[in-house]
Amino acid sequence: MPTFTEKQFSSILNKKKLIDSWFWDRYTINPYNGCLFGCVYCDARSGRYRMPEDFENDIVVKQQAAEMLDLRLRRARTLLPDVVGLGTVTDSYQGAEKVYENGRKILEVLARHAYPVHIATKSNLVLRDAPLLDAVGAKSWCSVSVTITTLQPEIARFLDHRSPSPQRRLDTIAQLKAATKHVQVGLLLIPLVPFLTDDVADLEQMFQAAQAAGADYLIFGGGMTMHDMQARWFLTRLQQEYPELVPKYAELYQFTPGGAVYDGQMAPPAAYTQPLYDVLLGLSEKYGLPWRMPRFIPQDFRRVNYLVAEKLLNEARLRQMRGEAWETFFWAGQNIQNLGESLTAVCKRGELTKIRNVRGAIKNLVQEYVGLYTDTAN
Ligand code: SF4
Fold first, then answer.
1. Among 146, 116, 137, 109, which Cα is nearest to 31's?
2. I need a labelling partner for 311 at 20 to 30 A (CA). Which of 52, 67, 79, 294 fits?
């Protein structure tokens, strides 16, 4: 039986130094610690998140989360509205939400303050909040990503048996699309679980299903990560259900099978992921499903900065997937993202190269984008 423990925290809104270049969030809020869905591969099981010891049964409910957020946003002098990732570590629509409604109350506050929101979830409970999400979207920007890692019922039973079935999650995409006008709804095919969810025919089926559900995007990748306690948990369960795969995992992640501590790699090597990315990029094109979601663009001095940063960060990801040099694009994008003034003004002063990593071909590209976006603004 799950237990819920209410606990007061000193802060609820976390501001990140770098935005998430996949989901565009600048801020994160997690209404609960621990997750009743208990997915076998869940990265939040690793030690760095400091979750309850019984991650999938002991759920910590953050007390007065909405009130604290409201106070924080009302008193904020230096915060600018930007994307809030709701439930970035653990699912904000897990079973605890039915009882405590922390996520819903937080959404109400964010809607009031016109903060844009991204939610990643496996739960159809998100449909309960469709009108509220639509209000957020109408005021600023709202995106909901429904995670589905496999459509195979047997594999889903192993990976995430406590979540709604894959079909129910597909229905959630279709229903949320039908119930809202201002919400982007997409599918997250994350993570790719080696030897279980990476079959090419299965991947194509996922794209077909996403397209049929009316998804606005399908974001995929990366190869499942493995960290300390989470890796041990996953490998124990793998040994129980798919023992024949353990040696293949040991070879892929280079760990010592049966070791007391996980001593392998954090992610599968590029030799494994790159051919998969080629397939996935091809499917993305074939089914007309973007592999990135259009981002929130503020209408203040950050407008052109965000548009240009989006281009550079997406290019960085594409290069990373193709095994090309990507880091300079990534850091140029993040540094432009973090500029405290208009990029157009910097460009007009001829000072683009004062921004770190903006040099050579990237500087020319930035100049071109600034011209493009500044012209359309005027
Ligand atoms: S739903 Fe998400 S947060 Fe919850 S256990 Fe599964 S992967 Fe982890």
1. 109
2. 79
pLDDT digits (tens, 9 = 90+) for 285-342: 999 999 999 999 999 999 999 999 999 999 999 999 999 999 999 999 999 999 999 9
Q: Which of these, 123, 55, 48, lies nearest to 86 by C-alpha position?
A: 123
Q: Which atom of ligand 1 is nearest to the CA of 56?
A: 5
Give tens-digit pLDDT for 219-275: 998 899 999 999 999 999 999 999 999 999 999 999 998 888 999 999 999 999 999
Alpha-carbon distance 313 to 363, whole Å? 14
3-state DSSP call for residue 116?
Answer: coil
Smallest CA separation from ligand 1 atom 8, residue: 42
What dotted CATH number matches 3-225+267-286?
A: 3.20.20.70
Q: Which helix (H) or strand (E) holds 377?
A: helix 360-377
Indicate the angle between helix axes 102-112 and 130-139, nearest 10 degrees: 20
Report the residue among 23, 32, 42, 225 best suited for mutation to probe ligand 1: largest number of ligand atoms under 8 A from its CB: 42
Give yes or no for residue 122 CB within 6 A of ligand 1: yes
Closest atom of ligand 1 to 87 CA is 3
Q: Backbone dihedral region of 352: left (phi > 0), alpha (psi from -120 to 50 degrees) or beta?
A: alpha
